[in-house]
TrEMBL record:
UniProt protein name: HAD-superfamily hydrolase subfamily IG 5'-nucleotidase
Sample GO molecular function, one term: metal ion binding
NCBIfam families xrefs: HAD-IG-Ncltidse (TIGR02244)
Domain of life: Eukaryota
Organism of origin: Arabidopsis suecica
Keyword terms, alphabetized: Coiled coil, Hydrolase, Magnesium, Metal-binding
InterPro entries: HAD-SF_hydro_IG_5-nucl (IPR008380), Pur_nucleotidase (IPR016695)
PANTHER family the UniProt entry points to: 5'-NUCLEOTIDASE DOMAIN-CONTAINING, FI20020P1
Leader sequence segment: none
């Protein structure tokens, strides 16, 4: 029986005894959602595109396909391709789609000249990095496919802009928030360990703050659903936090000089008075990092911030000197797959064939190959591709694993985790596995991503 180790994975050494302040995003950090949420966002966005942007009525028949997208894809606003990139910015050969059609290697090279995305080409790419991007990626591909099938001319950047505006609308208008709160059992995943983690931090004398782009009433409704059964009385989740900031407008929060406003949840309005101190009993809107640090006097290295969006949540804090923790929910499933015996068997087979092919090419020149040699070479290449396809299908039929390419190279998404996250884990409460005084060190003998260290397998034991 294989024991699966899930915990905190370290990109930069971190001493938890130096951390005095813990900050959290809300969506997909404190609150985790079921797969139904992506369908809700997708459906609301497509209806907005039809009703407000005058897209054809047939688009309302589109359905969200959970088997298609993964996190960390890129969309080319110039050429209309949705693609997965590796750590060095090259297009995954079997991970580039125009609409819902996978492009061949020849088509990729015809469009881009090479699989490597140069600096000029990269300016046309947009990264889809957070959990809400699943519905966005699927809707972009479906809209492109519609125009291709209808043989209509279209501008790929307009498709992206319209889809992105529609996705933003369903959030900013409150449509998706109302949908979630109307049926929280369908969308929100309860987790008693989260409350235990937050209480442990408070008991250790740590300061806690909540910094989210979501409106307060939505956060309050969700937190009540997630935690109030454990507390047993109203508004108790607020007692866990020293500062609560909603509608923070990240990532601009980290670079702007917007003032904080005190929010009255009962009247649903903002006060006009200047905010020069934080009251734990009050809620604050907007603001900026500069004012936040001036008011709290919290120094950068003693603060750690948890978030799921590598750009909006973590890039700003990372540059400002905070420590950062990326919450990557799909990490658990991918670790389980990569350590499953069936995956390890295909992986071992792939590496053996790769080694045989390397030795074959090193010892047999092209002009020495007999018909039998060429037949063997073709058979080995086909077997290698079958093993690669089998491993890919275990993760996602279209794009494979989130963190690695089909050839085992780290993905561009992994690069951004390495760049902006000091540590990463699947959920905040995994910190309960470590003492608050623990020293977290980067593993010595690893590839770029620490979680790629394999746990013990029983596959080849007798």
């Amino acid at each position: 029986m294989m024991i699966l180790c899930l915990g905190i994975y370290v990109n930069k050494n971190l001493r938890l005894d130096n951390i005095q302040v813990y900050g959290f995003d809300y969506d997909y950090t404190l609150a985790h959602y079921s797969s139904h949420l992506q369908s809700l966002i997708y459906d609301l966005a497509k209806k907005h595109m039809v009703n407000e942007f005058r897209y054809p009525d047939v688009c309302t028949q589109f359905e969200y396909d959970p088997t298609f997208p993964i996190r960390g894809l890129y969309y080319d606003k110039l050429k209309g391709c949705l693609m997965k990139l590796d750590f060095f910015g090259s297009i995954e050969p079997d991970g580039c789609y125009f609409g819902r059609r996978k492009l061949s290697r020849k088509e990729i090279e015809s469009m881009y000249g090479t699989r490597h995305i140069g600096r000029d080409q990269a300016r046309g790419l947009v990264g889809l990095m957070d959990f809400f991007c699943f519905s966005e990626a699927c809707l972009i591909a479906d809209m492109v496919q519609y125009f291709v099938d209808a043989k209509l001319e279209f501008d790929a950047s307009n498709i992206y802009n319209d889809v992105n505006r529609a996705i933003q609308h369903v959030h900013r208008s409150g449509l998706v928030h109302r949908g979630i709160l109307a049926d929280p059992n369908r969308y929100l995943l309860k987790n008693g360990q989260l409350l235990r983690f937050l209480r442990m931090l408070k008991d250790k004398g740590k300061k806690l703050f909540l910094l989210t782009n979501s409106p307060y009433n939505f956060v309050d409704g969700g937190m009540r659903f997630l935690m109030e059964e454990s507390f047993g009385f109203g508004d108790s989740w607020r007692e866990l936090f020293d500062v609560v900031i909603a509608k923070a407008n990240k990532p601009e929060f980290y670079t702007s000089e917007h003032p904080f406003r005190c929010y009255d949840s009962e009247r649903d309005n903002l006060a006009f008075t200047k905010v020069d101190a934080f009251d734990p009993k009050k809620v604050y809107y907007h603001g900026c990092l500069k004012s936040f640090l001036e008011i709290t006097k919290w120094h950068g290295p003693e603060v750690i911030y948890f978030g799921d969006h590598l750009f909006s949540d973590l890039r700003g804090p990372s540059k400002a000197g905070w420590r950062t923790a990326a919450i990557i929910h799909e990490l658990e499933r991918e670790i389980q797959i990569q350590n499953d015996d069936s995956y390890r068997f295909e992986q071992a087979k792939f590496h053996i064939i790769q080694e045989l092919l390397g030795r074959f090419h090193a010892t047999v020149s092209n002009n020495q190959r007999s018909e039998a040699c060429q037949s063997l070479l073709d058979e080995l290449n086909n077997a290698r591709q079958r093993a690669r396809d089998t491993m890919k299908q275990m993760f996602n039929r279209s794009f494979g694993a989130t963190f690695v390419t089909d050839t085992g190279q780290e993905s561009a998404f992994s690069y951004h985790i390495h760049q902006y996250a000091d540590v990463y884990t699947s959920k905040p409460e995994n910190f309960l596995l470590y003492r608050p005084e623990a020293w977290l060190h980067v593993p010595y003998d690893i590839k770029i991503m620490p979680h790629h260290v394999k746990v013990a397998s029983t596959l080849f034991k007798t």
